[in-house]
Queue: 2 jobs
Job 1
Amino acid sequence: MPVRGGHVAVPGPRGSGTARPAPEAGRTRTWVPGGPLDLGLVLGPLRRGPADPTFRAAPDGSVWRATRTPAGPGTLRVALRGGAAQAEAWGPGRDWLLDQLPSLLGAFDEPEAFEPRHRLVALTRHRRPGLRLTRTGLVMESLIPSILEQKVTTDEAYRAWRLLVRKYGEPAPGPVPGPMHVMPAARTWALVPSWEWHRAGVDNKRASAILRAVRVAARLEEGAGMAPEEARRRLEVVPGVGPWTSAETVQRSHGAADAVTVGDLHLPGIVGYALAGDRDADDAVMLSLLEPYAGQRHRAARLILLSGRTPPRRVPRMPRGDIGRL
């Protein structure tokens, strides 16, 4: 792994007799994937809305991520150049981020094991050969925003995540292309006052679930080294974390190809409509339709969503409720 970095001595204040370290340099790594790779498809699920303070897609095609690693905060920039993924990282977590780069970009995913059983799925897979399932190796950074997304519109959840991370997170290290923040540490989440949850539009049920989760953050983070189903069982011990939330978490933290999301407002109807013309499908129908993809049901659902074949809207959108304005 090519590495560069370090400090250089520059003159300190006049008469100080000391040297001041230069701004921290990044460290780099180049990794060549074993097949097609689409950064947007692979890393897109980690983005919580267009203004996510932890994620930025730059005009040059690079993707920036600010995250809290086991070694501390870190910022990662990844770009594809000539078939290779070129990465640079900053902060205390930079080495950890570079070590995890292949996992993040789907090196341990097995898209070749997927066998399409429907024409729509086969066509979408052919058109999207760069889809791989990311594996971040980090549980809490996916669990907390997933809890925020429970039973509310995505806009409301994205707003809450944005406001809380900007206020209680810390500036991302490195020469970021705009304001970016690392999400708060578990202890900081635990100290967020009740009125700030309210201002962010987070009801007591979701705030309480997050507070319970951060109290056992170390135990939950250990789940990154477990099989997805085992990690889900550990997550669901926390009151307020159910099958929907655990699936949404391990899809990102573990690259769990079979962790299909149940309990979702829209997914059963989308899968039912795409595969059987049934826009009123429920979870049971969805799971039945996805049964031929056992072991790869989440990937099948991703491909169905990417196909763009969704039922025409015939009911009002889910009402938006901003408790922060009450």
Job 2
Amino acid sequence: MSSLPLPALPPRLPSRVLVTGGAGFIGSALVWALNQLGVERIVVTDRLGRDEKWRNLVPLRFEDYLEADDLMAPLTSGALGHFDLVLHLGACSATTELDATYLAQNNFAYTKHLAHWALGHEVRFVYASSAATYGDGALGMDDRDNSTAGLSRLRPLNAYGYSKHLFDQYAAGMGVLPNVVGLKYFNVYGPNEAHKADMRSLVHKAFGQIEETGRVKLFKSHRPDFRDGEQRRDFLYIKDAIAMTLHLAMSPEAGGLYNIGSGEAHTWLELTGALFTALGKAPVIDFIEMPESIRAKYQYHTQAEIAKLRATGYTAAVTPLADAVRDYVQGYLVGDHRLGD
């Protein structure tokens, strides 16, 4: 439904791929991108639950689907056959999740089991970490120090970020981090995120607000050094995120942690302005109080350092914010389309 293509990728394609979280936002986008490259020997796992995440799978081509809790037994027994790439996107990504035990089991222990299997079978293992591991960013957001000591200095602000940080630290401590690829995704937005409820991007939420009321609500700033709407994020379009992901997956020399971001910070006002422009409307914004429950954990500025990614040979330009928002709005949100429709 869109005229904006997937950025060019190197020709080193996997023959058979396991994608966990493959019905989710980034996972289903990866399956779509692999399909665009002619890769269809894909096994997808997820927890479909009661939302409409299943709709992301409808246009995609893959061999088999398993619920996530049914994966490990046939995988470890060999019943699922050979894979040469695991893209592990399956996780609870809710930054507001308070059940730390659930996060430790679902995001940390599951990742450990899958990583040990992949390493033991010499299968390329690529997993989703998160920019949430950086906490408030006071120590910077540089992905180059992958040492145990370097990672131990980070202070995630929420249980989700900590669950991701746990595996980064574990892999570093076990000495296997250079043999896998961990992806610290920043603020990714784009088609196939409709099921994410409160974790949807502002673009998706604001599109619905504009359709309903003609206005957008943004949080007021509670820091004197940031005016309302000028909190800044590193926003990255999903098509760039998956191009970066597959580039690293297909680059055997790549290993360790990598920031997946645009390398540039934009304000919420810039993002909403691009949305209104894509809809041909003048901006109308209301500033509302930020809930007390998130004020102490709110990130006011995120910006990925992507020199390490560039050093692996990723040369594609990042899609400009206005172009990406227009592609998302006009190609997908209007008409409620998924990737591959």
